[in-house]
Amino acid sequence: MPENGVDIGALNCPLLRRADVNSNDRSIVALVMLAHGMVHTYELSIPIFVSIWLTEFDVLSLGIVEVGVTEATLGLVVTAGYGLFGVGALPGGVLVDRIGSARLITLCLFGMAGSFVLLGLAPNLLVVALALLLWGAAASVYHPAGLTLLSKGVTERGTGFAYHGIAGNVGTGLGPLLTAILLLFVDWTVVSVLLALPALVAGAYAMRARFDETAAVDAGGDSAADSDGESVGDDRGGTGVASLTEFGVESRRLFAGAFALVFVVVMASGLYYRGVLTFLPNLLESLPGFEPIPLTSALPTSVTDALGVQPDSERAINPERYFYSGLLIVGVLGQYLGGKLTDRIPVEAGLAGGFGLLALLALVFLPAANAGLGPLLVVGAALGCALFLVQPFYQATVAEYSPAGTRGLSYGFTYLGVFGVGALGGAIAGTILTYATPAALFLTLAMFGATGSGVGLYLLRRRRPA
């Protein structure tokens, strides 16, 4: 229950006034919704900057070596930051089990704010890379901290995951949308600094949040499934990992069972997610119907004069940025549907169906784009939903296939797979686009989707009847 400080469950949000959500659940869900939205605001604004950096920078200077800037080069730069976002989740998961979630979430918010200030001050691509690394390190602790908090503190776990995912998608969609709007009027460096302000406010807010982090476990509502689907509860995990020896023991225990297969699923999800999104704005801008619209022709003269836009200004509305943002906003529906379904169908069935849909959409995306804007909008909306439909399923699957005592470690490995290994999706996409074709990229994405679907089907067949 909230003690001294801010009861953030009192936030004026309809989702948090539901009768079936208790006050401790509301407090936790409100905090993780806020922080999750911030994390994905920054994460998915970066691809919009990528299309600018392709023209802004000619070389990446590494002292005595200079590398020309291409999609492959930027893919590696972005992968470095996104990779740390994932790799840092593993030590973050260990820290969660030792010191709790609230402190790490607060540090995450302040760290992300600092990284985007540095990004706005970057004079060259090397400093951009350093800023992205700082962002990745700060953001990496969020998912093990936030998801451990949900899985151990919230009694309505599936609903909590759904609301958490919705907030992430709001940040995912509105962050890039806000970025695109601001870029109409100011330089990308100014936009980056402005984007840092919400995280500073959120960090100050999080410092005063109070709640019971283990309410669901204390109430006896938490159990995990071992590799055979049996309940293992808290008897297979204590209160976290205190040494490298314990880390090794608990890690081997996790991967000795079906969690190893769950790890394959989350890697496939990360590779698909990063592979399709990192260069999506850049891919879209070459399609018919996505030509830049000069700001002076899109807005009345009185408005452009008031905004200080000169008649010969090169500032333009870039439709691909708004399509990209819209696709991500639609993901709210997928998150909500996925979260609700985790409480109604076997999570393994959700993995099989969701990843199968992702594989199909990868195969039809380019044919739909070539068929016209209408078919592309339909497929884009379906892709936005499917990308995020699978997330509540694999998050809940981790909870079922891991013990509560090392849940933070489990989610640390999960986001090592999703955002660490998954970050390679950006480098893979950049390399394919530089040396091959978009068709080859989407075929590769379909293979990632098929892998996740196949593992889901295998786990479903192994699942014991209730």
From TrEMBL:
Keywords: Cell membrane, Membrane, Transmembrane, Transmembrane helix, Transport. PROSITE patterns: MFS. Residues 29-464 form the Major facilitator superfamily (MFS) profile domain. Coiled coil: none annotated. It comes from the Archaea. It is a multi-pass membrane protein. It holds the Pfam family MFS_1. One of its GO terms (cellular component) is plasma membrane. Its main location: membrane. The chain crosses the membrane at residues 28-54, 74-96, 108-135, 177-201, 254-273, 322-338, 345-366, 372-390, 411-433, 439-460. It is found in: Cell membrane. This is MFS transporter.
